[in-house]
Input
Amino acid sequence: MKTIKVTALLTVLILAVGCGGGEPQSAKNKAPKVELNAFQLEHGIGPITEVVTISEIDAAAIEKGENIFVMNCSACHKVDERYIGPAMVDVIGRRSPTYMMNMILNPDEMVKKHPEGKKMLAEFLSPMPNQNLSQEDAHAVVQYLVSLKK
Output
């Protein structure tokens, strides 16, 4: 009888120690590596999957974009200075219009998966909130930002 109890106890202990879930805790906490294609690396991750160009000045779109920027973006972004987020002047020299639209439309994924988005989050320590703009509104904001180019 004593042998059965000892065997049962040993079996329970072996199962308890041996059933730790298969992989170390540190491996469970690591996010899966995201593979981005060349377009995504250059133009960001989001709903804009074709290159956006701003070739001509559209005064109405710039005015609309400025109004949206003031209402939705200016709490964190200033034109000529770093604030909660980066300064917007000459942003077109740092990022493509497509990248800027994807950042505006999909900031959550951009700061989690895109190398530049991750760098920005590490530098500014505050993720950009999703303003739930339409693609048309995001395009207007980008036209406004392009108009700021020195």
Remarks:
- The CA atoms of residues 65 and 71 lie 10 Å apart.
- The domain at 37-147 is CATH 1.10.760.10 (Cytochrome Bc1 Complex; Chain D, domain 2).
